[in-house]
């Protein structure tokens, strides 16, 4: 039986966080940080960081829907970032840190819209997550790939990513890869 792989693209602040969070889930074949949603071709990190390219820091996921459903990805996405802050996640400020779902199918679009509609009353402020069609993805530079895995002792990883992974472990242990359950 052939494995069916789907693509999903999420931006929820720094892509080091989204890559670490989604990369911990079972059914994720790959979690690749990069840039999407903007107008500049093949941008660099420095260019995206200016906020003038229109791109967001995103993580492109290849996933097996037989192991993890898109709805599960939505649940984890909204539980591990603040979807009510426009162009900001914590100390990361700028349009490149916006909350965005770049859907690759009409079914993903519909599920994201339904999910946000149902979730809207759960927050004190309105959800500002953009839902847009996926167009093109630019892989981030090599030093951004597997950042958390390669830099777990860095202050940013310990202060920002570790708490997200601990929350993930507590709330979504059933979705985690068995070999990643002990963080």
Automatic annotation (TrEMBL):
InterPro entries: Met_Sox_Rdtase_MsrA_dom, Met_Sox_Rdtase_MsrA_sf. Signal peptide: none annotated. Residues 7-157 form the Peptide methionine sulphoxide reductase MsrA domain. The active site is at 14. Pfam families: PMSR. NCBIfam families: msrA. Has an important function as a repair enzyme for proteins that have been inactivated by oxidation. Catalyzes the reversible oxidation-reduction of methionine sulfoxide in proteins to methionine. Belongs to the MsrA Met sulfoxide reductase family. This is Peptide methionine sulfoxide reductase MsrA. The gene is msrA.
């Amino acid at each position: 039986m052939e494995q069916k792989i789907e693509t999903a693209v999420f931006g929820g602040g720094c892509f080091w966080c989204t890559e670490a969070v989604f990369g911990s889930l079972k059914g994720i074949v790959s979690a690749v940080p990069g840039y999407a949603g903007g107008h500049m071709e093949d941008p660099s990190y420095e260019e995206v960081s200016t906020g003038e390219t229109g791109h967001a820091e995103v993580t492109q996921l290849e996933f097996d829907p037989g192991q993890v459903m898109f709805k599960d990805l939505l649940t984890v996405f909204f539980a591990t970032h603040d979807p009510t802050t426009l162009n900001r996640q914590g100390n990361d400020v700028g349009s490149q840190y916006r909350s965005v779902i770049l859907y690759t199918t009409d079914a993903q679009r519909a599920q994201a819209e339904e999910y946000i509609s149902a979730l809207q009353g759960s927050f004190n402020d309105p959800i500002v997550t953009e839902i847009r069609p996926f167009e093109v993805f630019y892989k981030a530079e090599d030093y951004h790939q597997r950042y958390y895995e390669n830099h777990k002792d860095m202050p940013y990883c310990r202060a920002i990513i570790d708490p997200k992974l601990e929350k993930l472990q507590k709330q979504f242990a059933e979705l985690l890869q068995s070999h990643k359950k002990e963080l």
